[in-house]
Amino acid sequence: MALDTVTTATQNPDTKQPFAELGLKEDEYARIKTILGRRPTSSELAMYSVMWSEHCSYKSSKIHLKQFGEKAVKSDALLVGIGENAGVVDIGQNYAITFKIESHNHPSFIEPYQGAATGVGGIVRDILTMGARPIAVMDPLRFGLADAPDTRRLLPGIVAGIGGYGNCLGLPNIGGEIVFDETYAGNPLVNALCVGVMKHEDIKLATAHGTGNLVVLFGAKTGGDGIGGVSVLASETFSDAKPTKRPAVQVGDPFAEKVLIECCLEIFKADLVIGIQDLGGAGLSCATSELASAGSGGMQINLEKVPLRDPSLSPEEILMSESQERMCAIVAPEKIKTFMAICKKWDVTATVIGEVTDGERLHITFNGELIVDVPPRTVAHDGPVYNRPIKKPDYIDQLTKSKFEVPLPTAPDEVKAAILKLIASPNIADKSWVTSQYDKYVQGNTVLAQPEDSGLIRIDEQTHLGVAVSTDANARWSYLDPYEGAKLALAESCRNIATTGAKPLAVTNCLNFGSPEDPGVMWQFAETVRGLADAALELGLPITGGNVSFYNQTGAVAILPTPVIGVLGVIQDVRKRTPMGIPAAGLDLYLIGKYNGNLSGSEWAYLHGEIGNASPVADLEMEKRLVNFLLDGQPIFESAHDVSNGGLAATIVESVLKNKIGARIELNDVANALFSETPGRVLVSIKDSATNEIVNLAGKYQIPIYKIGTTGGTDLEINLAVISIEELSKAHTETFPKLFG
Amino acid sequence: MSFRIGVVTFPGSLDDRDAARAVEMAGGIAVPLFHASDDLKEVQAVVLPGGFSYGDYLRCGAIARFAPIMNSIVTAADHGFPVLGICNGFQVLCESHLLPGALTRNSNLHFLCRDQKLKIENTNTMWTTGFKQDQEILIPLKNGEGSFQCDDETLNMLESEGRVIARYVDFDPNGSRNLIAGISNERGNIVGLMPHPEHAIESLTGPSTDGLTFFTSVLHQLVGR
User: Fold this and answer.
1) Per-residue pLDDT, A471
2) Is B87 a catalytic residue?
3) pLDDT at residue number A233
4) What is the DSSP letter of B132?
5) What is the extent of the structural domain holding B154?
6) pLDDT for A180-220, tens place per residue?
7) Would you state the pLDDT for residue A240?
8) In a 3-state reduction of DSSP, which class is residue A593?
9) Number of Cβ pairs closer than 8 Å across A and B?
10) pLDDT of A389 higher than 50
């Protein structure tokens, strides 16, 4: 095919172009023509189509996400906010932390191993791009029913992909979630979070300025993998009618990324870059247009200089390729020699592909012929914005009016059977089958990792400063009430941070939803964003960034609305963290926080095929007091564990099983007390000598506390029900190996 | 006096900074060594750390053995220079023929990260003198290719010469022959160990502090020289 140059495009305005196949709507195509004053060249069309896709442009979500900025609290801790590759937070002692979650849902459904692996790779490059050394990853996952054949295909592949990539990068995997629900069949969620650390002065931004400065592409060579991958895959609903998109999934090379990390960190240390951007979704189209539009605007790229793995690639394909493990840096000419020497040291291919120019246009030539001539902002930021129709779905009112009942155990042997059933259910069962495939030790700074309430990483070996990270979502509550669901997820994540002894500092999110073209889904999304923005404001926490994944839907069935909320916390002395496991016999067990016995949205209800009729209402004023109670009381807590999925029953069993130390517990209204998931509660153990202190703290923060038992022995006794630790352990740990081999 | 212990970084090494921390915590001076140079920088012992050198492409350790630094290490090791290979480092030692046998895919085909109990069976090597005979220790194990394999003749030799320095206890993590977790050469200066002692040096971040003894052992041995 002949090269479609700017001249050709001007001379042949009526050439038919495949804009619809590239995912552009007719009016979007018309808009491109208006911007350019002519039809786009095929290369320009490729760039606009990937950059204006839902995944890259946030065209359906933008209008709602504005609230995160508008409602934001003023926070001195926020060094870099929404809009850059990742937000950056000040944690004191001149350290800055950057963290972010992204989805890689659609590629992971098609090719579980590579989809999940490159999900890790992509988020790690986002963190690296900020100038930070990546220090930990976490992976919140959602699947269809645990015993469904497709889950047995997806889960082992996705877990192996996360491990295969993350382990090879030397990043400890410190947490995450695994949840099963039939709505995720065909639409598994693979969210990946990465945390990085740097000194304040090391923060890097994605910007290109200074005429004559060089544009350097470095890392892996460009191949045909992932052409239109993220951007097209993540922007369409799966349906049986269309041809397979298998070739659009990227293939990862973690070794290339590992040397790229070390190479970049050495380059940063020598202060050799003016701006830097990783190549992820939309590849070079994204990197060049974003770098240029964040700077003065002018850039000249010689596309034939891009090193290729497959020499037959056309310019359009080079621009769209989502080959992994690539970075693009802006380097001053006097520093290029040192830059290249460091790349050579790490055997990283680096090529000058262009330069920053005067003017405000991005010019891309291929062997001297001009094939792209665009204002870069129109590609990167001026994509379409949709205010999509919103309608409260009918199911909400139907559920609200409905009554639901689930069987509740009363006799001791019924209570015992119920507990064993709950802790063996896939959502509550021990996840070691998964987490043992992840390296949690590498880097030597992991203080707490899954199944603890939050992952905790030491930042400074001398001062003992550390950070905690937790991710949470309760999609069933979000389904019942997306506004409250989002608030509750943020509250839970903060509680998890405080439970381990850290102070919540900043919020990130990954919002996973069905099709935005469905008004009901769009309503769920709008309510979620409103809830999250309100909750962050009320809790006084900045939202540092986030990610939206739409089109998690097969046919008419959308996934449960799943806002995964990540919270970062800081702990001044990691040696003082509070673990979840009961550490010794002879301690008193206290339940902190009040329960209301509502089983709506609970795991117990789910086990009986019920979702309930109403979400709990978040009491953020109380949650704030609870966080302060936990932080203040930290010195007297021997252990602390949040009550969430699976209710108090799951919390008690997990606390007992961690160090295999039993407990004797007395509860009124035993079934509701055990299985209700009323938010805002924590189980703590303290020494008898600390009784006065806990009572005083409860008074100070107006948090109800209940002494429910004592620790010790080789059994868990709840009223008259007696279960040996052996029985508990067997029930809890057998499920995953049985399901997945 | 303090001794200088080198820690080699290959492209893809991951636990190099952890090994250096362990050396320092044991009282030594950790000296970074880079694969591309053959300069041992006057170190008195060397640690080949864990990781995925060269992405484990071809075979684990198969490319790393050709690194310039390995030429110097092989020559020095032949003269009694102490070398500890941990995980990927063990694989590099086998590929370099400094130790016999090979590490293959775990028997259940999964990467496995767990706190693993070991029994120390030879306390006469440069790296294990600080342990008591048959002492049980708990240190992290984390690998995908940790199954030690060799022919019967080699196995008999290792067993009869007491060169199995550590064995897995209570749980078989990977299908290694005779539950072998680590071996040494005849002279006892070269040790390969699949689990990670450098991740068990502080109770804050590891399951125990048992791992530190590998590093204090070699420092004591160097004093005695």
Assistant:
1) 97
2) yes
3) 46
4) P
5) 4-224
6) 999 999 999 999 999 999 999 999 888 888 999 999 999 99
7) 45
8) coil
9) 86
10) yes
Residue B224: pLDDT band by 50, 70, 90 thresholds? confident
Strand partners of residue A545 = A508
Residues in chain B: 225
Question: Exposure of A242 by Cβ count < 10 A (0-12 exposed, 13-18 middle, 19+ buried)?
Answer: exposed
pLDDT of residue A1: 56
For helices A725-740 and A647-659, give the axis angle rounded to 10 degrees: 100
Residue B105, CB-side half-sphere exposure with 13 Å CA sphere: 4
The DSSP secondary-structure symbol of A720 reads: T
Higher pLDDT, A229 or A398: A398
Tally of domains in chain B:
1
User: Can you read off the two tokens belonging to residue A623?
Assistant: 């949650």
Q: Do A447 and B15 touch (CB under 8 A)?
A: no
Contact yes or no for B204 and A253 at CB 8 A: no
* Token pair in block for residue A468: 């905690």
Spatial neighbors of A556 by CB under 8 A, at least 6 apart, are none
Catalytic hit among B94, B121, B198, B199: B198
Beta carbons of A322 and A230 less than 8 angstroms apart: yes
What CATH number does the domain containing B14 carry? 3.40.50.880
pLDDT greater than 80 at residue A234: no
**Does A451 sit behind a cis peptide bond, omega within 30 degrees of 0 on the bond before it?**
yes
**Closest chain A C-alpha to B35 CA, distance in angstroms:** 11
Residues of B numbered 19-78 whose beta carbons fall under 8 angstroms of chain A's beta carbons: which are they?
21, 36, 50-52, 54-57
Contact A277, A207 (CB under 8 A): no
Pairing mode, strands A214-219 and A350-356: antiparallel
The answer, yes or no, to whether residue A241 has pLDDT greater than 70, is no
Q: How far is CA A508 from the centre of its chain?
A: 8
> Are A346 and B11 in contact (CB < 8 Å)?
yes
Q: Which of A255, A438, A575 sits opposite B204 (nearest CB)?
A: A575
The HSE-up count of residue A507 (CA atoms within 13 Å, CB side) is 34
B-chain residue closest to A456, CA distance: B205
Q: What is the DSSP letter of A616?
A: P
Contact B8, B96 (CB under 8 A): no
Q: What are phi and psi of B217, to 5 degrees?
A: -60, -50
Using a CB-CB cut-off of 8 Å, the residues of chain A touching B142 are 167, 439, 441-442
pLDDT in tens, A585-603: 999 999 999 988 889 999 9
Across the interface, whether the CB atoms of A437 and B113 are under 8 A apart is answered yes
Q: In terms of C-beta density within 10 A (0-12 exposed, 13-18 middle, 19 or more buried), how is residue A38 classed? A: middle
Structure confidence by residue, pLDDT tens digits, A279-338: 988 899 999 999 999 988 899 999 999 999 988 889 998 998 989 999 999 999 999 999
Q: Which tokens hold the place of A322?
A: 């989502």
- pTM for this prediction: 0.94
What are the distances in angstroms from CA B81 to CA B43, B78, B221? 10, 7, 11
Interface touch A437/B206, C-beta < 8 Å: no
B212, B197 Cβ separation under 8 angstroms: yes
Structural contact between residues A373 and A32, judged by C-beta atoms closer than 8 angstroms: no
Q: How far is CA B184 from CA B100, B102, B104, B134, B194, in A?
A: 9, 13, 18, 16, 12
CB B89 within 8 A of CB B82: no
Q: Is B198 among the residues known to form the active site?
A: yes
Task: For residue A631, give the H/E element and its range.
Answer: helix A620-633
Predicted pLDDT of residue A76: 80
Q: What is the dihedral of CA A676, A681, A685, A690, to 10 degrees?
A: -140
Cα–Cα distance, A151 to A302 (Å, whole number) = 45
Query: Measured between beta carbons, which residues in chain B are less than 8 angstroms from residue A345?
Result: 36
Which of B35, B60, B87, B94 is catalytic? The answer is B87
